[in-house]
């Protein structure tokens, strides 16, 4: 399948150069809150990707019929309906993860990535481009979540996806889990450091 | 009454919207460049929170629970919030143009502020708790106390960060870390400081 330059850009841009979390600073709330362990972070990343892509498609389909004055409310209702579907599905098939995500699942509605993409992209672009843009932003968001969660779970509880990876002999030799990593504050500092590295690398490339 | 006061104090400090739950982070980071604007936004958040949360509480107790429509809560809550924000905007514009000039640009933003929606979703969890629990919201008074408390907690956090960022203008920060990077780390350190309030009981 040959993709036009624009479609490709809509998908690849948000993964790195135009990352929603690192560059546009959108969707921080949930990015920080669900990253204590890898599993909820993965589920959250996938849910957001699906919802961004689908809501982009829906809004892009009906973009010519939405009156501009009430567009925010219409967008919110489209997103809320999709979030309700995803949360009911998760409650049915992955109840424990849904409980771990608790309110943050519902808060996908007010996740700024969604409103930002709907306003900035889906309202003015074709259905196919909007879908790719949604996927790109979703994955861009998901990989940050996974990186932060990987570091926090590995250092904070010595596990990955719930399985212990730090051998018992290390604990016997005096290794301790870093309890700090489990605290909400460390998520902020980790994201700060990721932004630091990301900016340093990208500035070098652009020079 | 005691319960409501305890809930109020806890929601400002121990359960602070920003430092414990990261809610309303986007506007928190974007608007905290100077103290004056952040104070305006903070007041707008307290205002909208105080109106929307009790309304959502009443809806949850008298409409959603008896009819078993819990799964509609996301759509209903966000519609209530968006409608009330619109309504508040119109009323303020009509009766207090000076307040409107101060809050004006922030009001539409608040509809998508996660702190507002988040408080309503926490309320939904907390009404199910045992009334003896310090976190429970058992009546409309508690709902008001929780709404005002979490609003003020947010206001406090954004004004504090704005103050620090104003001072930080003069510091020599490594170039790639300037702007948003150092702000994240500052918020992280503030969150560490706020953690000393956890476990606070009155």
Structural domains of chain A: how many: 1
Q: H/E order of the elements of chain B?
A: HHHHHHHHH
Main sheet summary of chain B: none
Count of domains of chain B: 1
Quote the beta fraction of chain B: under 5%
Count of alpha and pi helical runs of chain A: 10
Gyration radius of chain B, in Å: 18 Å
Helix coverage percent of chain B: over 70%
Which segments of chain A are poorly predicted (pLDDT under 50) over 5 or more consecutive residues?
none
Terminal CA distance of chain A reads 34 Å
By DSSP (H or I, 4+ residues per run), the number of helices of chain B equals 9
Shape of chain B: globular
Q: Structural class, from secondary structure content of chain B?
A: mainly alpha
Largest sheet of chain A: 2 strands, antiparallel
* Subunit arrangement of the protein: heterodimer
| Arithmetic mean of pLDDT of chain B | 82
Q: What do you see in this structure?
A:
The complex is a heterodimer of chains A (207) and B (202). Chain A is built from 10 helices and 2 strands; from the N terminus they run H-H-H-H-H-H-H-H-E-E-H-H. Chain A is mostly helical and 207 residues long. Chain A has one domain. Chain A has a two-stranded antiparallel ribbon. In chain A, helix 1 packs parallel to helix 8, helix 3 packs across helix 5 and helix 3 runs antiparallel to helix 8. The longest helix of chain A has 31 residues. The model of chain A has no long low-confidence stretch (mean pLDDT 79). Chain B is mostly helical. Chain B has one domain. Chain B contains 9 helices and no strands. In chain B, helix 1 packs parallel to helix 8. Chain B is globular. The model of chain B has no long low-confidence stretch (mean pLDDT 82). At the A-B interface, helix 2, helix 4 and helix 10 of A face helix 2, helix 4, helix 7 and helix 9 of B.
């Amino acid at each position: 399948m040959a993709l036009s330059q624009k479609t490709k850009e809509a998908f690849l841009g948000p993964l790195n150069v135009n990352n929603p979390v690192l560059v546009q600073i959108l969707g921080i709330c949930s990015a920080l809150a669900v990253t204590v362990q890898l599993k909820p972070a993965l589920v959250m990343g996938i849910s957001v990707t699906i919802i961004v892509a689908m809501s982009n498609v829906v809004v892009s389909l009906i973009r010519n019929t939405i009156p501009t004055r009430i567009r925010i409310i219409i967008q919110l209702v489209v997103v809320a309906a999709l979030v309700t579907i995803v949360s009911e599905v998760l409650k049915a098939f992955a109840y424990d993860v849904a409980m771990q995500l608790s309110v943050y699942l519902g808060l996908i509605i007010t996740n700024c990535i969604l409103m930002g993409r709907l306003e900035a992209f889906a309202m003015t672009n074709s259905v196919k481009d909007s879908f790719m843009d949604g996927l790109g932003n979703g994955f861009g968001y998901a990989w940050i979540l996974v990186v932060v969660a990987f570091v926090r779970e590995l250092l904070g509880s010595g596990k990955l996806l719930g399985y212990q990876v730090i051998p018992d002999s290390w604990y016997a030799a005096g290794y301790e889990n870093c309890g700090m990593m489990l605290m909400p504050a460390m998520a902020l500092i980790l994201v700060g450091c990721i932004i630091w590295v990301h900016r340093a690398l990208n500035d070098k490339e652009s020079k | 009454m005691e319960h409501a006061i305890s809930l109020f104090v806890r929601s400002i400090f121990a359960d602070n919207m920003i430092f414990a739950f990261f809610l309303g982070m986007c506007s928190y980071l974007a608007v905290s460049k100077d103290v004056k604007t952040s104070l305006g936004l903070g007041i707008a958040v307290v205002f909208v929170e105080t109106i929307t949360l009790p309304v959502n509480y009443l809806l949850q107790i008298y409409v959603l629970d008896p009819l078993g429509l819990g799964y509609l809560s996301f759509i209903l809550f966000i519609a209530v919030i968006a409608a009330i924000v619109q309504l508040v905007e119109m009323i303020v514009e009509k009766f207090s143009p000076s307040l409107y000039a101060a809050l004006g640009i922030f009001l539409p933003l608040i509809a998508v502020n996660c702190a507002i929606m988040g408080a309503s979703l926490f309320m939904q969890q907390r009404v199910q708790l045992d009334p003896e629990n310090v976190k429970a919201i058992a009546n409309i008074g508690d709902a008001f106390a929780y709404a005002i408390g979490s609003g003020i907690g947010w206001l406090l956090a954004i004004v504090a960060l704005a103050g620090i960022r104003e001072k930080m203008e003069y510091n020599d920060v490594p170039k790639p870390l300037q702007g948003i990077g150092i702000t994240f780390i500052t918020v992280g350190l503030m969150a560490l400081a706020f953690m000393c309030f956890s476990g606070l009981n009155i």
